[in-house]
Each structure stands twice: as structure tokens, then as C-alpha cells.
Amino acid sequence: MFSNKIVNIVFSILVAIGLWVYVVGEVNPETTGKFQDVPIRFINASVLAEDGLALADPGIPTVAVVISGNRADMKGLTESEIDITADLSGLEKGENQIELIVSLPNDMKLQSISSEKVRVTIESLVSAEKPVQIQYQGTIPEGKEPGAISILPPTVQVSGAVSSVAKVHYVAAVVSVKDIMSTPQELEAGLKPVDKDGTLISYLFLSQEQVKIDVTMLLLKTVPLNMDVTGNVPDGYILESSEKPETVTIKGTADVLAKVESISGSPIDISGENASVNIPIQLSLPAGVEVGNESENLALTLVINPVTINLFNYDADSMTFKGLATGLAVDLPNQSILLTVQSSADAAEGLLARDFTLSLNLDGLKAGTHKVSILVETQKSGLSYSTTPKEIQITIREE
């Protein structure tokens, strides 16, 4: 009796297992799956272009979907097999909503979708020529830099929505650093329109997909920069500072760089400059030598401001004497001396008469009448000054 019961239990288990295998393997029951962030693909942009219109960059719109299907089919399903499209044909300029079309493989069914429509903006179609610049992939070796660069064509036409084209700063030609050798190479590079930060601007058309690039990996060298600055700023202005680079980084092949000990810049005349400015430095480069990237925008930096004038009056007898011989005395005229101080507004702030000392150098002078230059001394910086009169007539007598 007990053994029969055990046999029945074992038989029931085997039957259940058999039925499960049959259902899973043969009947293949239906199941569901949820997929997040399925991208929307826009179609018929060319039809829109025929009407002089284009899709403004919508970003990367996505939806979430719930899909049902046979267990075996659902098991291997990926988001890339779920095709969700938005048809741009027939849209008008401005804001539009487009019904989404979902295409699924293997008789699968859409159970739900997070949004049945996508909102887009349609703008006028425009075209513009944009420069091509190289965008390097990988790390450039230390002490080296790509050079001897030629890009053909140097510009390409970018077409699309007016707002998107306006964002394009240049068209990036993507080049792998590992493909650049120390001997000249001709490479083909794919293109992508990017903004000033190098970020891709999508939903645009390019007049071509690739450009040809000649490029060589060159060596870097830093050498002294020789350059003269001539002239003076106009009356009424003061040159507070003048800063020029002392060195320049250049690039070329090893044999060419070995012959270069310094680089000359064209002289810069600052006459007529009446405001702070950065004046580009024009370099004289030997054949086969290029400017390194870090020295591309070398400039003479001038800080120029309008002159602030301070006037101070002193009595002649307030001056001090230097070098007066023992036994001699000085008789000064009864007159005032005007000190004119020119400086920037910052340097002039807080200036007082006591910040200046007026003196006469009497070294070697004997008794008699003399015309002596008036000297001005101060601990303040950034000032230019003069006295009226510049000289004073004195009498030296024996005590």
C-alpha cells in the first residue's frame, strides 16, 4: 500500500515535468517584455527638404514600450530590433506632432507605448560653407605635434534647419593619432558637424562624407623670440605695462629644427595706440618650420589708460640740498614751483604733496650765482612728473 503511494507520487512528478517540457518546448507560451529608451527614427527628411524645410535638432527622443510575443522570440529581443519611426513628409513650418509607427519582428505585438506622438519643430532649410578642422582621436605623443597639414577640400557645405546650421562652428575631420607618421601621409577622414565645443550637431546634411588630409607628425622645440617694440603712446595717455612673450614653440622635422636657435618677430610700433590692446606678433619662420599650437596666437599685450594729472605747488625754500660744501649757504628766490604728475587713475589715487621731495644737487658748486635743475624723488611707482620751472636760479654764499 505504502509502496504504491510512492510510485504514484513519482509518476505524477514525471508527468508534470513532461508537461512543462512540452509546454516550453512545443507550445511556446506568450510572454511580455518592457523596453526603456527605445530611440525614435525620423524618416523622409529628403521629402521635407524638397519643400525647403528641415527638422530642427530634437535631441535624442525615446519612448518606452511593452511588447508581447512567444517566449522563445522574446528571449533574444533587443532594443535595436524595435523600429519606431516618425514620418516627416507633409509637415509644415513650426511646431508639429507626428504619430509614431512601431515595427516589430516575428509577429510580436505592441501592448503599450509611453507616448504615441513626438513633438518636433520644422524650420527653413538653409546651407552654409563651414571650415574643416581636424579632430584627433587618441593621445598625441609628448614633444610632438601634427603638422604640414593640408585638407582638401578646406570647406564643405552644411545644410539643415536654420537654427542647427547656425550652431555649427566647424566640420570635424576625425583622424586617429596612430595613423599619423613621421613621414607625410595621405589619409581619408570622415566628417561630422560640431559646435564650438566639438559636440556633434545632428540632423544635418553635408555636401560630402569625407575629405583627404596630408599630415605629418613633427617634433616640437621652444626657442627665444627676438622682437623690437618702438614708439611711444600719444600725449594724454600712459603705458602702464607692456608684455611680450620671451619664447616661441615651433615644430618641424629633426634636421630642420636643429638649425633653428631663435625666431624673429616683426618690429611693432606702438605710436598712436591709445587703448589697451593685444597686437598679434608676425613671425619670420624658416622654410619647413611651423608655429606650435601653444604659440599660435602670440601677441604684444599693452595696458594703456588715459592720463590722470595731479598738480602740486611747493615753495622754493621747501627744497632740500645735496652736496653743499661746508661753510657755504644758499639764498633761494621767493617763488613757487609747480609739480605736474601724470599717471593712471589707479596710481593717482591717494597721491599727496608730501609723497614727493624736491631737491637741488649742489655738489661741486662754489660761491656765486647758479642755475640748478630741480630734482624730484618719490617712493611711488607708475608715475611721470615734471616741474615748472625745470631750473631755479640760486645764490651760494660764504657763511
Sequence-ordered SSE layout with sheet pairings:
Blueprint (H helix, E strand, L loop, with lengths): L1 H26 L2 E14 L1 H6 L2 E3 L6 E9 H5 L7 E5 L6 E10 L5 E5 L3 E21 L6 E9 L2 E7 H6 L2 E7 L8 E10 L10 E2 L3 E17 L2 E2 L6 E7 L3 E6 L1 H4 L5 E3 L2 E2 L7 E4 L2 E2 L5 E2 L7 E8 L1 E8 L4 E3 L5 E4 L4 E8 L1 H4 L7 E6 L6 E11 L4 E6 L2 E8 L1
Parallel strand pairs: 1-4, 7-10, 13-17, 14-18, 24-27
Antiparallel strand pairs: 1-3, 2-7, 3-6, 4-5, 5-7, 7-9, 8-13, 9-12, 10-11, 11-13, 13-16, 15-22, 16-21, 17-20, 19-22, 23-26, 25-30, 26-29, 27-28, 28-30
In short, what is this structure?
The chain has helices at about 1-25, 45-50, 70-75, 160-165, 255, 345-350, and strands at about 30-45, 55, 60-70, 85, 95-105, 110-115, 115-135, 145-150, 155-160, 170-175, 185-195, 205, 210-225, 230, 235-245, 245-250, 265, 270, 275-280, 285, 290, 300-305, 310-315, 320, 330, 335-345, 355-360, 370-380, 385-390, 390-399. The protein has about 400 residues and is mainly β.
